[in-house]
Amino acid sequence: MSNSLGHEVAHLGHVELFTPRPQESLDFFVRVLGLTENGTDGDSVYLRTWDDYEHHSLKLTAAATSGVGRTALRASSPEALARRVAAIEARGLGVGWTDGDTGVGPTYLFRDPDGHEMELYWETEWYQPPEHLRPALKNQAQAYPGRGVGVRRLDHVNYLAQSAESNGRFVYDTLGGRVTEQIMLDTGVISAQWTHFGQKSYDLVYTDDWTGSSGRLHHIAFATDTREDILRAADIALENEVFIETGPHKHAIQQTFFLYLYEPGGNRIELCNPTGRLIFAPDWEPVTWTQAERAKGQAWGLKTIESFHTHGTPPV
Amino acid sequence: MSNSLGHEVAHLGHVELFTPRPQESLDFFVRVLGLTENGTDGDSVYLRTWDDYEHHSLKLTAAATSGVGRTALRASSPEALARRVAAIEARGLGVGWTDGDTGVGPTYLFRDPDGHEMELYWETEWYQPPEHLRPALKNQAQAYPGRGVGVRRLDHVNYLAQSAESNGRFVYDTLGGRVTEQIMLDTGVISAQWTHFGQKSYDLVYTDDWTGSSGRLHHIAFATDTREDILRAADIALENEVFIETGPHKHAIQQTFFLYLYEPGGNRIELCNPTGRLIFAPDWEPVTWTQAERAKGQAWGLKTIESFHTHGTPPV
Amino acid sequence: MSNSLGHEVAHLGHVELFTPRPQESLDFFVRVLGLTENGTDGDSVYLRTWDDYEHHSLKLTAAATSGVGRTALRASSPEALARRVAAIEARGLGVGWTDGDTGVGPTYLFRDPDGHEMELYWETEWYQPPEHLRPALKNQAQAYPGRGVGVRRLDHVNYLAQSAESNGRFVYDTLGGRVTEQIMLDTGVISAQWTHFGQKSYDLVYTDDWTGSSGRLHHIAFATDTREDILRAADIALENEVFIETGPHKHAIQQTFFLYLYEPGGNRIELCNPTGRLIFAPDWEPVTWTQAERAKGQAWGLKTIESFHTHGTPPV
Amino acid sequence: MSNSLGHEVAHLGHVELFTPRPQESLDFFVRVLGLTENGTDGDSVYLRTWDDYEHHSLKLTAAATSGVGRTALRASSPEALARRVAAIEARGLGVGWTDGDTGVGPTYLFRDPDGHEMELYWETEWYQPPEHLRPALKNQAQAYPGRGVGVRRLDHVNYLAQSAESNGRFVYDTLGGRVTEQIMLDTGVISAQWTHFGQKSYDLVYTDDWTGSSGRLHHIAFATDTREDILRAADIALENEVFIETGPHKHAIQQTFFLYLYEPGGNRIELCNPTGRLIFAPDWEPVTWTQAERAKGQAWGLKTIESFHTHGTPPV
């Protein structure tokens, strides 16, 4: 679906995750997934994947319960930032400017129609690794840590929302994203929508929340370099008593090779590998999956796990 | 390097390759690499990778000698096409409009400063696979062929040019691309430049031609899904007596996992896998490699093969 | 479990499979799995994997129904052959000597306690590939075919039997194999037993037949070089409308990475990769899995598929 | 090459390595390769790979210089041990019985013709992991450590010797091993010989020492689960400033996928993956590679690195 707005948002920057078990969640992200700490702020710890050029990929915040905090998107230019802020304000979803969290400059806060907190920024601090994390190759942000899964990047956020479609439309109309795939129920309702800003086939995903709640999270995802990393991750999860919800397997939608875990705070974490898939067509028409097609399960026949439709965070 | 032009070119569309041994070259692309024939035109055969949404990825043309023919780029929109044509004409490198080759609409022909033939188009025919090539998953262009290497897409073109830098600047200034990496000799000369249009870290590459000739080719590259596909490709090449020039190994520049072959017509073909690397920063500063850094060889220490600096097509 | 008989049987040689749909089964083995035809005999076609040093790995025989025919084991030496024949005769399970099928010398026919046909031989014809199948590396039996899955070897046979344990005991007592793993029901019944002859962790497996029948087959398995080959095989199966029963996933028992398919004749075919696992200890004690442990499913949590306990061949 | 002695030696047990830089070597084996400490003895540290069922795989001993200490082989049975001791004594290479090092019972010391220290034993202590190293799957010796390369097992030892052939013959005649591959110079001299005891295609290798010295080491090797582990290991080596001598690539001989590193003490360490290759034939004839064939380099064309013929330990 061509979007005349072009590429106003460059990419997903970072996301905040709430956890009621901050120490165990931190251990999960650092030791099991292989992220690196990069400072703290009050009850939050900043964590980064090794290929992130910015300050952090994840802000892990101790809280009473689980769920997703603010999602940060980087604009493509100062002008794009100004244009998107105007569009968000026109849409009545703006919150206002702040000085910006650690690592980013002036930041505009807003909410998606479902109420998830979001922010847009242009200025960002390029990560300067300390000596012991300096990479051997200068075209890489940080040394590859031979620790745990070793995820490369924060890949996407999959939100639960009262209406997937109206939130997907907000990404399209107001943020300039495009829809690559979606699920349409027999009733005609679009119950899930995958949107992207660049050539990765999705960045922000909306799924209808079966509880009718607002502002919840289905999962956040980290990408690995290879499918073998995902298989290895399954062994690492097994040895570390991390709950494996489903996978490894290949999604029919988007064809992503996946593994779903629950981090100790209860949030669902996907480890994903796109295996080379990118969307190049600027006029890509959304692929629509019917209820009957969804009933066939995942790409190689695995039934979609029940808990995909019963577990979200925070619990309700 | 931010480019205020934004994403005017969406992606590399297809490329034409000349071969003095058309039957053997065809066999190489179909049986060894796993491309699929999709029609002919005079002395040319159209070939496609399984994940190409357009008519073809490669036009293989019987000719007196080897080398690269026309490279086709798809514009991001009709407006972007018009803007780029105006810019090319202003630069004095335009050739003019044609009706377009099989599978594409109105096409604007031009040359890069070094004289390589190029074309820009917006209208394109989305590929409709015949029954026996219909994919099992509807978000895929064509059934995955379990034949040979099974490359996913045409990935990039690496041109030889009298001046890599002036051609890279043309991509930047006139086509709206961006430079991600480059080599700078001790003399200050930029001897190679990698440019891209989207999030893949390169699409068009220019390398100084040691012979001082114009319009020649260093290589064209096809991407595989995995590094294992590249290792398997090396065995397939070995069994089929395809000349392996170097690899498999990992480039320091761009960190691509690579294997270089010569197809029967003499053209160098790279099989490449980026292993998850994408460029997200809209203001990425080119990474500049010095002569001393280049002297260290590839990422894991393999010396850069001599023939990289002696073999180009057509031979001179 | 140490076996004072030592290594009397060297390895699984080949197996015969019955199919009511011979042409489609042949297409499956040749085009989808990548085996190579090596002659015919009446209603049978001989097929070989590329790393088999003998004449064939599989004898595919047209028949009224599906199921397993004769399984051939190669003895470790002429003396071992003589000793095993004597032991089989003493056990009352011998049938007698024949001249041997294509590719093997004098062959002793017998049955396991459940009635599955078996044979033992020493003399064998080393495979001499024709010119077009000559491998590039001389330490390999045949050129690697870049076709379909490209399985490396016949890996194991998993039989259904009225009593897994009494058949496993026969392998141990009479053939000199050893038990590496087994399942013990809460009743104390050993309902499945994995036996091996060398360092591979299993070669012949017996599983209790839920129908109480004799002589049936659970599956035969072919090994691939890598886990990536299994993932790729799943895509190939998908595109070729081959029924995927379960997987890819990792077995808890034996830790094999697996994919189960049904070939067109109805027989279950496993594609397996041991990922480096070998059994070195000559006094390995069988690992016994309880019913409760089995209830946990496969290694990464996949539930064992129901049809594992309802589908065997021939159907009853 | 059939060996009527059968399988008298079950497998390579462990090896001792000398290092003049014990702390850095220890860090290399634990943090970079992912081995686990299992006790100390004087100047030695015992280290184990995660799939070793015995006490240790490697004994790392502080010493004035580098090189290989004692290599331990486990006999297939108490009777095989007695028979091999008698044969070694008859050959005049015996040293005598000791109580055995940590983890093994009565041990017979001897030397190969070149003077490398060796030992044979039957009794061994099965490894009992402490709570924090208990594996999730009960058919595995120790939890898989998500640390560094994570090598699965000690794979083989490659010795330098004054005469490869006379030492290979000792393995064949006296220890009951078999020769799988060898190099024959144009002079008729066998300059390297690969021998094995089970189905792995090699366990002990002898290479002619260009210095004419005795008792030296070419390398010891650890096996990984996958080729991807080797590629990942190259990145880990790169980031940890471990010297990469050559690879990753595929050997023509034995077809092993390899990466060669120098540990901080100067010893060459191979990381290897056989990619499914096993030797099943009990009468396998040695594959002999000529000087001309060797001159072609490795499987995919990489030239054999010069330092393979100049670097051994200890230095002379």
TrEMBL record, chains A, B, C, D:
Keywords tagged on the record: Oxidoreductase, Repeat
Organism listed in the record: Lentzea indica
MF-aspect GO terms: catechol 2,3-dioxygenase activity
Keyword presence, Nuclease: no
Pfam families membership: Glyoxalase (PF00903)
Record's keyword annotation contains Transcription regulation: no
Gene3D superfamilies per the UniProt record, alphabetical: 2,3-Dihydroxybiphenyl 1,2-Dioxygenase, domain 1
Xref: SUPFAM superfamilies: Glyoxalase/Bleomycin resistance protein/Dihydroxybiphenyl dioxygenase (SSF54593)
NCBIfam families linked to this entry: catechol_2_3
Domain VOC, residue spans: 11-123, 153-274
Domain of life assignment: Bacteria
InterPro entries xref list: Catechol_2-3_dOase, Glyas_Bleomycin-R_OHBP_Dase, Glyas_Fos-R_dOase_dom, GlyoxalaseI/FosfomycinResist, VOC_core
EC number of the protein: 1.13.11.2
Identification of the protein by name: Catechol 2,3-dioxygenase
